[in-house]
């Protein structure tokens, strides 16, 4: 089950992706609602998305906030969840004139950071079990 922090973080990351070109596109906002509201507890991700918009977060601020929430203590991001999140980002990126080079780079960066978080957690768990 996905935690509220994980989903709020995802909404923030999706907001950052959508703002890469400087503004939210109508098609992207529509895609966010359609895609996320079909996800279990997706309304939390939609809230995270619009919360960042209401406070006019920059792309960098929204991404950092989202990643900080997703890296929260006790949150497990397994392979299936990573793949689902990347798929959601791809769908949003493609909603308006296809995915741009910047959006592809953003999604790759996000993927690498998710993998890094998982690796860091495994290492921490191994150290804890030894002690």
Radius of gyration: 15 Å
Q: What structural class should be given to the helix and strand makeup?
A: mainly alpha
Q: What helical percentage do the residues reach?
A: over 70%
Strand content: under 5%
| Termini Cα gap | 29 Å
Keywords:
mainly alpha, 131 residues, 6 helices
Topology:
Layout: H1 4-18, H2 26-36, H3 42-54, H4 59-70, H5 79-94, H6 101-130
Helix pairs in contact: 1-3, 1-4, 1-5, 2-3, 2-5, 5-6
Q: What can you see in these coordinates?
A:
- The protein is mainly α.
- It contains six helices and no strands.
- It is globular and about 35 Å long.
- The two termini are 29 Å apart.
- 32% of the residues are buried.
Brief characterization of the structure:
This protein has about 130 residues and is mainly alpha-helical. It contains 6 helices and no strands.
